[in-house]
Amino acid sequence: MSGRALLLVLAAAVVHAAWNALAKRAHDPFVFLWSSVALASLGLLPLGVWALTHEGWAPGGVLFVLATVVIHAVYFFALGRAYAAGDLSLVYPVARGLGVALVPLLAFLFLEERLSPVGALGIALVVAGIASMTVGGHDRAPGPFPRLRRSERGARVAGLGWAVLTGLTIAAYSVVDKAGVARVHPLAYISLMGIGMSIVLAPVILRRRPALAREWRTNGRAIAVASTMNLTSYLLVLFAFRLSKAGYVVAAREISIVLSVLIGSVLMREGHVAPRLAGAAVVLIGVACVALAR
Fold this sequence. Notes:
By secondary structure, the protein is mainly alpha-helical. Helices cover 81% and strands 0% of the residues.
């Protein structure tokens, strides 16, 4: 991976962890996510139109845009449900970890990409580190009453289930978008994706108008801040896709897991700091291997 691609991906990781933390703190994470993406998409639309008129798109580009709109609609819905039920420091590693594990396989099958031995080792270490952070401690919570009630355990399981679905969509859109930005300029691509996803999910949001009004009333500033982060973080990744292999980009981006563990376990007091930080150290080693791969 080139130094320029690595810098883009690391910047995306920091921004990505930050807006996910904001979404987790929302009253309704799904409504929060939809609002921030819709607002960001409107802001990026003029730049997207400019890029589209200057570069156009290659044959087949519209099919990739339509595919990513559908996949991202499922992604944001599942992510919102996961954060409504589960911890940031559990949901985030599971979702992102599945993306790392599956993308190289999908890239091999559909993009004919080959991983170097060092790159493959790095991805394996990233996955192992993520797995170590999600094993154990699922039936305990910090504080004087560590045992979770049955309803809380059910919510935790539901959160992990939605996190798994989120991870599947991450792997899917990573491969689709790697091919998509080769045909459509990243600014146009992400603008169309954001607008399309907002329209697809609008009927769901309209059925939750009271939650939408409350979210804007109580978290309007946070939504505005997140809107500058969510599509921006992915835009950096799309540019990195133009410079490096999909498997390397997605794996290096997972340094955001380290940040999410610190934010969730420490700042949000979700607990399990030591085992999750140990797993994060393995992730860092894996990221270093991926960065050194050529």
